[in-house]
Amino acid sequence: AYTDGSKTENGGVGASVVTSRGNATARLNDQDTVYAAELKGILLALGHIKDDLVRELVATSRAPARVHGNERADILAKLVASAYRPAEAVILLSGCRTKLRELAAKRWKEEWASNNSGAHLRALFPKPTKAIFAIHESIRRAASSVLVQMQTGKISLPAYLAALP
Q1: Distance between CA atoms of 14 and 78, rounded to whole angstroms?
Q2: Which domain of life does this protein belong to (predicted)?
């Protein structure tokens, strides 16, 4: 058996298996990874072969002598990745996490740009990035608190206030 998983340039994800008994394909969600598609291909293979062929799948799925079947599995995985059949797709937790992170980052950027408060911070950091957090990871919490207060201009340190124009 030959298995493959593929993700197209437009984000489609698919898996396939080519066995002596036939072929099988599955369309995954766009948020899923190539790794998830590879695993789905293996699950398809296990569903289409008998127990005594499992050892052959593990030992020969990437064997150089059997490139023809492997290339065929790759072509089928790419073909099914470009098809849209969401009813067949199982939603993976990793895909949900990826999508939530993307949405949270997008919303953070939108709110950063449109919020009326925080002009001091926007002057220091025009765009929100994880670099903002990296500054605070290497210092103690008390120092981090003072740094935020200085960055926002909300601090009562006499020396700091006296230095302001």
Answers
A1: 6
A2: Eukaryota
What is d(CA 27, CA 46) in angstroms, rounded to the nearest whole number?
Answer: 17
How many Å apart are CA 15 and CA 19, to the nearest integer?
14
CA distance 17 to 23: 6
Nearest to 136 by CA among 147, 125, 121, 152: 147
The 3-state DSSP class for residue 79 equals: helix
Tens of pLDDT, residues 14-43: 999 888 778 888 888 888 889 889 999 888
C-alpha 16/C-alpha 37 separation (Å) is: 8
Q: Are 34 and 6 in contact (CB under 8 A)?
A: yes
Question: Which residue shows structure tokens 């073909």?
Answer: 79
- In eight-state DSSP terms, residue 129 is -
CA 31 to each of CA 25, 40, 106, 131: distance values in angstroms, whole numbers, following the listed order: 18, 14, 16, 25
pTM of the model: 0.43
